[in-house]
Automatic annotation (TrEMBL):
One annotated GO molecular function: transmembrane transporter activity
Chain intervals with Basic and acidic residues compositional bias: 349-363
Pfam family, one: EamA
Membrane protein topology class: Multi-pass membrane protein
Family listed: Belongs to the drug/metabolite transporter (DMT) superfamily. Plant drug/metabolite exporter (P-DME) (TC 2.A.7.4) family.
Taxon lineage: Eukaryota, Viridiplantae, Streptophyta, Embryophyta, Tracheophyta
Residue ranges of every copy of the EamA domain listed in the record: 14-154, 194-332
Intracellular or extracellular location(s): Membrane
Organism for this UniProt entry: Centaurea solstitialis (yellow star-thistle)
Origin: domain of life: Eukaryota
Transmembrane regions: 12-31, 43-63, 75-94, 100-126, 138-156, 192-212, 224-243, 263-282, 289-309, 315-333
GO annotation, cellular component aspect: membrane
UniProt protein name: WAT1-related protein
Keyword Transmembrane helix appears in the UniProt entry: yes
UniProt xrefs under InterPro entries: EamA_dom (IPR000620), EmrE-like (IPR037185), WAT1-related (IPR030184)
Amino acid sequence: MSMDGKGYGKWYPVLVMIAVHFAFATINVLLKKVIDDGLNHLVFITYRLTVATIFLAPVAFFFERKSQWKLTYSLLGHLFLNAILGASLTQYLFLLGIQYTSATFSCAFLNMVPVITFVMSLPFGLERVNIKSNSGKAKVIGTLVCVGGATLLTLYKGVPLFNNNSSHLQTTINVEDVSRLSSVLASRKARWTSGCLALVAGTVLWSSWFLVQSNIGKKYPLQYSSTAIMMFFGAIQSFVLSMSVERDISSWVLKGKLEIFSVFYAGIIGSGFCFVGMSWCVKKRGPVFSAAFSPLVQMIAALFDIPFLHEPLHLGSLVGSAIVVVGLYILLWGKNKEIMQNSGVTKGGDPETEKAKIQDPESHPTTVTCDSKDPPPAPAF
């Protein structure tokens, strides 16, 4: 059976995206550890993207050297933009978010990626909504629910769960420590807010990456080469940004085996295999499908974050994440129902109904289906 045919082949993109997000979750937990230990954000990103470039360049040459596809200045411009959206700036914002909050909380914002990707796909014609149909209503309701959950995540932290430190604090605090404790709590609240803002910006940029990658995949469908070039541009961008912000040469020295392992693991697995796998899935199933697996990162990260890093899980994170996931799958249910309806029209059914839908384009919205041979119109970047 072919990868694009019926049967087991249709599950390959699903398995790839599960593996990708499992790797992302473990990387986020490692990043939280090394960043807390003092590793510079931009130094880590530069090393990570450099390792990914060195790893992918020979792989791309070996597998794609006989390809007839040619790089153009337009494609290089898109790959440079993609490096900002998916490699350098986005990773820097997420690292800030991880440092100021927690790995589990940072992953919770990834739940918003499918919704933001869906909303941003509308102006470019990659997605359409028929508000009169049940599928269209589900898309709108799911989007609104996700936005509400993300707002709760940002504005409400709540009490920590599975954390017994509060009782210890209350027994050891005396009157003289009240002022100092208030200052510490205010500082932590400010850091938490800054981390939330960084995560919001990073989530928007990450969602934009799926749209730009969808456009690149149609014009240059070579995953290894395009990813290697994107990582090369990202390494240069991170290095320039790092030198403009922090010029301390000592920050470029990796300390300890964990930092070295984290750089190579994040570079080869996270920025190498994972981006290649995501690019392939975006080409096969579209940007919204690929983004829909983002909630897996939070669930997997929590399995490592809470028991090993002893990060507290807050009530606001739990409730907000649950609302976002519910809204996400309402949205995906609507999209899947729309695809099934359109598939039924193309395969057969009531001739009068089909004729009416063909004559009324508003009742038959265009969607991105996994078996579609004609690609949707590309975004006008």
